[in-house]
Write a structure and sequence with these properties.
By secondary structure, this protein is α/β, with parallel strands linked by helices. Helices cover 35% and strands 20% of the residues. It is built from 16 helices and 19 strands.
């Protein structure tokens, strides 16, 4: 039998990712008694940093978007007072795509400069690109509601004529959502496009961990609590409502609300008794498709020369060929060397580089056997584009999908929660299950948000849903 806690809470949040932190801050600010239970020894989930040989690397998320006036992160920063404790710089260009033909398309802070960068190589599509970007940034409900059943490829086909340009503009979504344009929901892709590419490149001083730490600091300021290095084992229920959580040490923590910021498989298939969940819903969860994971390089630099590599803070998207859709399918079939294309970003400190490429989740033994070979393959692909980089490298380390799983417990090391397909977009029961009162989900396993700004929105919106039911205010 679980040992009851002396403390009871209005809300227990499972996981201190950005979605959970934002949700917790809003609830605590309104006067609710909040506890976040986090299995790691630091907050952030994929939004963490670590030191290796004196160099601070971002573990996964490398920047964020939507800090423009009235953007999602602007709301969060203003509401929670982050501007007073966190310095943020926006890099320009935020992103650059290098095509197989050697074309470099830059995403500048100024949209007109971005359009000019595209016009340089694709002048015939200038007007269409301008119209598309306008629709993306106007955020008109009728535009986004029309995307419900479209793929991102469908949307690009409506606007653009040049097939190479379509491939170039959709290439980042392999890295931002783990899907090619032909499979990615147009709604998901356009939100990522507007919030990450057209309004991206924001980076907190000290690394991405600084953002997570700032949110944790505000939670404590609002009299919330975080319990690190602790795992939830069960979500306890009575009849058709949640009553709290049980930790791995058998401690029971009563709570009116439970908000899960962890992976949906754990939430529905491990934490909750089978007889509390409809069989059809359990089967649906089992059959849903998680996103791809990533293989990540952490490259230490003994020197830096801007002639030999990209500028610090800019995310470089390196396309190996235009037929990356076939390479994506080959990855799914098990070919770990199929893709070749990747993302490369020099750290603002100029002391290192993070680079990512999509990868399938495999066993520990598989990665123990293949990790070094994949690391060498990945590095050589980067050096083909930046050959002079070799002389600046001091060390190379890597994270496999198993590494990402170990530190975040995301199912199969998924980098973006559920795959953002048309079929899996906007499943409301994954946000607020109707069969259990006072259970909510936030984060990228809700099918509603991915990326830092997307998961922050789910935390903000979920807190508002709860606060509409609560009389507690400060």
């Amino acid at each position: 039998m679980a040992t009851p806690s002396r403390e009871t809470y209005d809300a227990v949040i499972i996981g201190a990712g950005i979605g959970g932190l934002v949700c917790g801050c809003y609830l605590a600010r309104a006067g609710l008694k909040v506890l976040i239970v986090e299995q790691h020894n630091k907050p952030g989930g994929y939004c963490t940093s670590f030191k290796r040989r004196g160099v601070t690397f971002d573990a996964a998320a490398h920047c964020f978007g939507s800090l423009r006036k009235d953007g999602i992160m602007d709301w969060v920063f203003e509401d929670l007072g982050l501007n007073s404790i966190l310095k943020v710089k926006r890099y320009n260009p935020s992103d650059s795509i290098i095509s197989p033909d050697g074309h470099q398309i830059d995403f500048f802070n100024n949209q007109e400069d971005t359009i000019n960068s595209i016009k340089k190589y694709f002048p015939e599509d200038e007007g269409a690109v301008r119209t598309l970007f306008t629709h993306l940034m106007e955020n008109h409900p009728s535009f986004f509601s029309s995307l419900r059943n479209l793929t991102f490829k469908d949307l690009l086909d409506r606007y653009l004529k040049n097939e190479k340009l379509k491939k170039i503009l959709s290439f980042p979504f392999i890295g931002l959502g783990g899907l090619p344009a032909s499979r990615m929901s147009a709604f998901v892709a356009t939100k990522l496009f507007s919030e990450f590419l057209l309004d991206g490149g924001y980076y907190p001083e000290g690394g991405m961990q600084s953002l997570s730490n700032a949110l944790a600091e505000r939670l404590i300021y609002y009299k919330g609590n975080i319990m690190f290095s602790s795992r939830v084992r069960r979500i306890r229920t009575y009849k058709n409502r949640v009553t709290g959580v049980v930790l791995d040490n058998n401690r029971y923590i009563p709570s009116k609300y439970v908000i899960s910021n962890c992976n949906a498989y754990h939430t529905f298939l491990r934490f909750i008794d089978k007889n509390k969940i409809d069989i059809d819903f359990r089967d649906k969860i089992k059959n849903m498709e998680p996103s791809l994971s990533n293989f990540v390089l952490y490259i230490g630099l003994k020197s830096y020369d801007k002639k030999d590599i990209s500028p610090p803070g800019t995310c470089m998207w390196l396309m190996k060929n235009y037929n990356y859709e076939r390479a994506y399918n080959e990855i799914l079939s098990g070919d770990i060397y199929a893709f070749g294309g990747c993302t490369v970003r020099v750290l603002p400190s100029r002391q290192g580089i993070t680079a990512t490429m999509p990868a399938l989740f495999r066993t520990k033994n598989f990665w123990k056997k293949h990790k070094e070979r994949v690391k060498e393959f990945f590095l050589e692909n980067i050096l083909q584009v930046f050959p002079a980089l070799r002389k600046h490298i001091s060390f190379v380390d890597a994270a496999t999908p198993q590494t990402l799983y170990r530190y975040t417990l995301n199912h199969r090391g998924a980098s973006f929660g559920w795959a953002g397909t048309v079929e899996q977009f906007g499943i409301y029961k994954l946000r607020k299950p109707s069969f259990l009162k006072n259970l909510f989900l936030v984060g990228h396993w809700t099918t509603l948000g991915s990326g830092v700004s997307g998961v922050a929105y789910t935390g903000y919106d979920t807190a508002n849903l709860i606060l509409k039911k609560e009389p507690l205010t400060v």
